[in-house]
Amino acid sequence: MTKTVEITNLNWRYLHADDNALEDITLEVGEGEVLGIVGANENGKTTLLKSISGMIPKSTDGIKEGEVRLYGTLVEEMNERELAATVGFVFSDPELQFTMMNVLDEIVFGLENLRLDLDEIDRRLFAAAEKSASRTCSINPRWSSREDKNNGSLLRRSSP
Ligand SMILES: Nc1ncnc2c1ncn2[C@@H]1O[C@H](COP(=O)(O)OP(=O)(O)OP(=O)(O)O)[C@@H](O)[C@H]1O
Ligand SMILES: [Mg+2]
To answer: Which range (13-22, 77-86, 134-143) has the least confidence?
Structure first.
């Protein structure tokens, strides 16, 4: 099975912190596998996800030891464009990161930012809409531009 995420002996200490937020984490995630990470507050769940998304260490100061690989490549060796095409990150309050007012525009915005051509955007748009609970609304421009507006619950269910 293809390994999507491979973490080996990962330690992370935020700048000025006395202790490591992550201590000797080793795990693998296979393609199609769904992994739940549970733990008490401040145990490092968000820190682990930021390490997988590349936000750590790219835009966070601290000390990292060990490796995080996405599809075999070290996150440090992936540029922003490669990371954006490989990994998505939904914050605790997903509504804070929506930029558009309807599902269709929200999905297309991400795909346009990857500078995909229109045929590929269409293909991915329909594939995403197929999987989401908002299938009818998402793929029908009439619905998405009118009935779908301001529908936070639909946007939430359609977030990556
Ligand atoms: N930007 C930061 N700078 C310094 N320390 C941080 C930073 N972000 C988190 N921490 C510390 O790292 C540790 C892990 O925090 P993290 O936010 O990853 O935990 P969490 O499991 O996601 O918590 P929660 O359940 O509250 O969301 C905590 O001790 C926290 O105070
Ligand atoms: Mg958290």
So the answer is: 134-143
Task: Look at ligand 1, atom 9, and give the residue with the nearest C-alpha.
Answer: 47
Ligand 2 centre from 112 Cα, in Å? 29
Instruction: Give start-end residues of each CATH 3.40.50.300 domain in the chain.
Output: 3-78
Distance of CA 126 from the midpoint of ligand 2 (Å) = 32
Q: Is the CB of 59 under 6 A from ligand 1?
A: no
Contacts of 139 (CB under 8 A, 6+ apart): 104, 125, 126, 129
Instruction: Give the integer Cα–Cα distance in Å for 44 and 48.
Output: 6
Angstrom distances, CA of residue 152 to CA of 102, 103, 113, 149, 157:
9, 9, 22, 8, 9
Q: Which pLDDT score, from 0 to 100, does residue 143 have?
A: 40
Average pLDDT over residues 132-151: 48
Fold of 3-78: Rossmann fold (3.40.50)
Q: Across the chain, what does the average pLDDT equal?
A: 84
Give the global pTM: 0.81
